[in-house]
Amino acid sequence: MKDLILERDKLMEKRKKIHAGYHEIPPTNHKNNKKKRAEIRDQLISLSKDIREIVTAIRHYDKHQKLPENFVKKGSKKDLQKQYNNLKSQKSKYKAKVYGTQSKDPLPEGPKKEAAKKKLQDIESEMDKIKKLIDEH
Predict the structure, then answer these.
(1) Could you give phi then psi for residue 28, rounded to 5 degrees?
(2) Do residues 8 and 58 lie in contact, with contact meaning Cβ atoms separated by under 8 Å?
(3) For residue range 94-125, what is the model confidence (pLDDT) as tens digits?
(4) CA geometry: angle at 1 spanning 59 and 41, to 5°?
């Protein structure tokens, strides 16, 4: 969660600097000025969209104590790989709870086991999303 807040702040600072550059372009409507304004506007729109996604995820987390299902943090391949490895560890933990291991018995049937099964499914779907993002990089 802390990473998301830092990412949001970093993006907001970047948007602020780009926006300041927008006002430095002379008000005349020369071809080059129009082109610069259009490029900056596109950058601002893209950054604003990313910031809105992060803010929505933060608000969802504050309300429900978990990130939204469709939210996957964008980042470098290294960050995505780290996120994927963390999910693999969580998957192992929940798999042991649901199915047991050689040294540990599975949870008895009931609400805790059902919750663990659901969490295991959520982790697997998130791992698939992140794997696709890693493959795209």
Answers:
(1) -70, 150
(2) yes
(3) 888 888 887 888 888 889 889 889 989 988 98
(4) 65
What's the sign of the alpha-carbon dihedral 11, 14, 18, 19? positive
Look at the block and give the residue holding tokens 């994927």.
Answer: 84
Cα separation, 92 vs 97, whole angstroms: 9
* Residue 128 to residues 51, 71, 95, 116, 136, Cα–Cα distance (Å): 24, 13, 17, 18, 12
Tell me: the pLDDT tens digits for 34-61?
898 899 999 999 899 889 988 988 888 8
pTM of the full predicted structure?
Answer: 0.54
Q: Is 48 within 8 Å of 19 (Cβ atoms)?
A: no
* Positive or negative torsion for Cα 122, 125, 91, 50: negative
Q: Are 15 and 48 in contact (CB under 8 A)?
A: yes
**Measuring CA to CA, which residue among 17, 63, 62 is closest to residue 44?**
17
Tokens of 85: 């490895």
Q: How far is CA 74 from the centre of its chain?
A: 5
